[in-house]
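step 4 of 6: structure.
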Amino acid sequence: MKLTSYGRSLHELNILKDQGFEEVILEPKSLSRFGKLSKDEFLALSMRAKELGLRVLLEWDILMTEDVFTAKLKEVNDYVAHADAVRVQDPGAFGWVVRNTDRPLQFIAENGNHNLPALEGWVDLAKGRLERLILSIELSKTAIEGYVQKLKVPCELLGMGRILLFYTPRPLLSALAPEKMTMNGEIAALGESEESPHKGFPIVENAHGTFMFHIKEFCLVDFAHELRQMGLGFFRIDQRWDNQLLAEISGLVKNFDATGFETFKEKYTQDLMRGFYLVNKTDVLFPKLKNSRLQKREGDYIGEVLEAEKGSHLAIMVKNPKGLKKTDLLKILHPKGEIFESKIYSLRNLSLEEVDSVAAGNLAIIQFIGGVWVKSQVFYQ
Amino acid sequence: MTKHQLPEVLAPAGSLDKLKIAVLYGANAVYVGGQKFGLRTAADNFTLDELREGMNFAHERGTQVYVVLNSFLHDKDLEEVPEFVKFLEEIGTDAVIVSDLGVVKTVRAHSKIPVHISTQASTLNSESARIWKEAGATRIVLGREVSVKEAGKIKREVDIEIEMFIHGSMCMAYSGHCVISNFTQGRDSNRGGCAHSCRFEYSLEGLDTPEKKKAYFMSSKDLEGLRVLPAFIEEKIDSLKIEGRMKSHLYAGTMSKVYSEALKYYAEHGDFLSDDLINWEAELSKVSHRTYTEASLVEKAGADSIFNERENASDGEWQMVGSVIDANPKSGIVIEVRNAFNQGDELEIIPFKGPAIKVVANEIMDLAMKAVTRTRPTTLVRLPFVEGVSSMHLVRQRGKA
């Protein structure tokens, strides 16, 4: 497992070289969501990286509408020419790199792509040009292990760094405090949501839009050994907001020691989390989002009680094409779960005439059944 | 494209009732969700029986039905897709709406149902559309960040059907690129568990104010593209989508009616230069909504597209009173009451075509024919029969608590 990280200065390139990195991600301000490098700075760093023996990866990870994309194409070749590989997130950039350059491609599949056929699909669409897939941090280790073993290309995973929660092209902070915009075209704040106990979400607005991060940073440093054994290709360390401890983190990934990691965590300014690495259960709450007793069923479902007039009647909207017959035996499921069973003693239509049956799409009025409420679901017994 | 080279009106249908309402009020197509694989876990959604019935109901009236499979599915979820897709093909589903490449491949491996790429995939440019076409898509639902002009260019360059949102709530984030719920609530927003964290108030620190600044800074105004219709037509956009499977019956009906009537007017007159435009806008304002914006349909959405207010679900100028269950001279107009009204109140019954029918509720009876002075929600009441009123018509009243 190799390490990868970002470089924004000659100093950072030297750290990467010293720590045994074989590559560096360079982010032009124009093409990368959090890029700081002007074209001249990119070219200078690219040249220096190559002198140091570092492979240069161009990060082109913004999403682009048609007009933005067209504008970017006027300059992207200047960067591509000085890169050894191109990293993209927008499928448009993916397609353009495959069709218009000879550079190896790295696809940032961090949004979705939580299944093997999707990841294999991107490999196929790249027509042999894909050299790396950057996986989602929402994947569990079981999923990662499976993908690493089955995919034809190496995989990369964020191992340490900020968790991006939200990305919009709209300017959301400058509307509130335009005077805070820096010379660099950035504005930053910390957010606290009324819905959540979490405080201090870092928020950044720049030329590409507004971004919000989790209050905790993602950290799999203590699982690096496990990831290495799985066969993960690349472990990404993202210290773009504070690179003071880049060398120390790299050292821990290469040679983990529990005591050193505890010491590191104490001095690291942000709290750390492992996200869904052990298990992803972000769908287990779904059944609780609605009352299962109000959910309709297949087959024996007759319809729904629209009115329950105590001592008088129940009005049932008949939905089953078989309709409702006076001889039918009913099973009625109350919204709170109680089940009532009953014969039909009186069956009337809307004109209050006694009838033998009521067809689908019509209202059936039967005798009141104690305890049954509106929204109760009615079934054939 | 439908005849006259007009885009189709594609309405949301969160339930079988809403599907029928959207179809009857003029939608050319509806989109629905099954019990799984969609992004509206909390919606009623359709059982298999309802999907079959809804499909038949729509097709008998010339309306297409698209089924959403637009979750970002995990491997385990994907295992169940083939069987569902075979069922969808069997009942004649006109297309499925998908946002994940793995789902695209699975659908194509097990059926010949056309695949539309969901807005959740944030397809924003022609190169991206080309990739999805290569993967087998027949239509792209573009990201809401794309202007109509850009969409036209994408269509011309890629030669693929283009669908765009014209109305409804909007994610502030690039769709599919928000995972706040995942990490703060443990609910996968891209599998139907979105907690709408963007709609809450945030206290912001670091903006040069002595105290934290409070703002709903991530909450977007609602999209409304009525006045952009000529541009959609000019750019030959194939489908105009209305957001809102979770929204009310009144919403589904009003939106389907207004946008289809506006397009029909254009088909007949070749323009929208009509007093009807004012009426259509008035109709749109009668449904509960946040402040409207054209967002990025014409120019890139800026700071003025932020809603920055607390939600108030009942802030519509008008409210839905209920829907007509039955209407004939013998049993009268039977209304399923959702919001109470009183004897003497003025109501509007909305026909499938044409202006609202005004009714004064002078004489209200319950189902058992007893006189009523004040109705209650979740009851059924009768009004005297009025010519032109029929089953499934929606009833509204100028808003009151």
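step 5 of 6: annotate
 - Chain B touches chain A through 105 residues (CB under 8 Å).
 - The CA atoms of residues 128 and 134 of chain B lie 10 Å apart.
step 6 of 6: archive
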